[in-house]
Write a structure and sequence with these properties.
Blueprint: E1 9-14, E2 17-18, H1 25-36, E3 43-45, E4 51-53, E5 71-76, E6 79-80, H2 92-108, E7 113-116, H3 132-135
Parallel strand pairs: 1-5, 1-7, 2-6, 3-5
Antiparallel strand pairs: 3-4
The structure holds zinc ion.
Length: 136
Amino acid sequence: MTALGPIKYLTIHCAATPEGRDVKAATISQWDKAKFGQVSYHHVVELDGKDVVTLPDTVKGAHVGLNNTGNIGICYVGGVDAKMKPKDTRTPAQKATLRQLVGEYRLRFPNIIVRGHRDWPGVARACPSFDVKTGL
Ligand SMILES: [Zn+2]
């Protein structure tokens, strides 16, 4: 495992799983290990709002191309509709947990930059299916 380095960024993702499908954090971590050889995110927020720590904050994730150094990744389960089109499917419980998590990181790291995956330069995808600046 590679060290994360000083924390500068927090990036929000969706799992791109269909609305209402109760995929668990452990399953997402398994998919990521199969695809990327490691767990991608530091937190996965399940449909019921449960925050599952999938990687310690000291370990580098694999969630924004070449920009994973110092970058905490938080993924919520959902993010697409039944036809796999991007949709903000966050449940009220997930919204509350995401806000709380981001708030905690902002307290611990006052200069942290919070973004959606799609806000990174060169990212041509809808993830996390909502505007982090206005919709968190
Ligand atoms: Zn993403």
